[in-house]
Specification:
The chain has 310 residues and is of the alpha/beta class. It contains ten helices and eleven strands. Helix 8 runs antiparallel to helix 10.
Length: 310
């Protein structure tokens, strides 16, 4: 029986329980807690493989994009299962994938925000009311479905030192000048527990590439400003072919201070923001099978790299 539930909202507690269950079921998986949030929820990793090629995949930087979390968890379970059975995943021997790569997953970067959007934080509780008060500053944003930030009202994907001041200027000009459901950059880059932990973990892992999963639009973003990154375009084109997603330039107003932006600037290696699925966030769980099918090839190919390439 499958461990990863793909037919219910993925709360922070369910994510944590799922990771621990996977580690128990497959002893060659391992996990650590990078930090706890302002409200005490763990930010947990899931790591598999023994290869020299380190890759790092993250999901749910944004609260109402929680459907990306089970994408990474199911990938881990399917790969572990295939390895144990001596089978293939996406046509590739699972043993080869885990021998080639060490895959580092951070499946839920924003557990506090996810719990608000999924209803795990009940109406009337202190956490719910604190968030609602912040949301009252932005009455045009639906609450809680429009919530992307952590529970302190900081957008975690606007927290990275890659044009952060420019991001602040843009977002302030759009009216996002104080904590709220989305697009508030915080008082300074890397001043939230979650973004600090992910940036430090990324530096510790020193990965060959990163995938940052978001929703929605069926779009892949692979550039930051005009920084040349060897092999990035070839990988991006292969990801687009495998998924059917389009390659696009990041819209200027969203083109700064993101995790992928910081990774490209800091490491000069391929970094990708993948906007999975389509519709209005939060996407319905019924869309999960299609999202997973579209992205499995990306997840496998990113671990292996291209022949003779990155």
């Amino acid at each position: 029986m499958a461990i990863v539930k793909t037919d219910v909202p993925m709360t922070a507690a369910l994510c944590d329980e799922t990771i621990l269950a996977l580690v128990e079921a497959y002893p060659f998986l391992r996990s650590e807690v990078l930090t706890t949030t302002a409200y005490g929820r763990p930010l947990r990793t899931l790591v598999m493989g023994t290869g020299n090629r380190h890759v790092l995949y993250s999901a749910a930087h944004h609260a109402n994009e929680w459907i990306t979390t089970p994408v990474l968890l199911k990938f881990a379970e399917d790969l572990a299962q295939a390895f144990q059975a001596g089978e293939k995943l996406f046509g590739v021997d699972a043993a080869l994938i885990l021998k080639t790569a060490m895959i580092h997953l951070v499946p839920m970067v924003d557990p506090d925000g996810v719990d608000l959007v999924t209803g795990a934080i009940e109406t009337g509780t202190l956490q719910y009311e604190a968030a609602r008060m912040l949301a009252d500053n932005y009455p045009s944003i639906p609450f809680p479905d429009g919530w992307k930030a952590n529970l302190l009202g900081v957008d975690l994907n606007l927290q990275y030192p890659a044009g952060w001041l420019r991001a602040r200027e843009i977002k302030f000009s759009q009216g996002y000048t104080r904590p709220g459901p989305r697009d508030y950059v915080g008082r300074a880059p890397l001043n939230q527990r979650e973004s600090i932990a992910l940036s430090q973990y990324t530096q510790d892992v020193n990965p060959a590439l990163v995938l940052a999963y978001h929703t929605q639009g069926k779009v892949i973003y692979w550039q930051f400003q005009d920084i040349p990154v060897p092999g990035a375009q070839a990988l991006a084109e292969e990801f687009a072919r495998l998924s059917g997603y389009s390659l696009e330039e990041t819209p200027y107003a969203s083109g700064f201070a993101g995790y992928k932006d910081w990774f490209i600037q800091r490491f000069r290696r391929p970094g990708f923001t993948i906007e999975a699925g389509e519709g209005e966030n939060p996407l319905p769980i019924e869309q999960f099978p299609e999202i997973y099918r579209d992205n499995l090839g990306i997840l496998v190919t990113a671990a292996l790299g291209l022949p003779g390439g990155v």
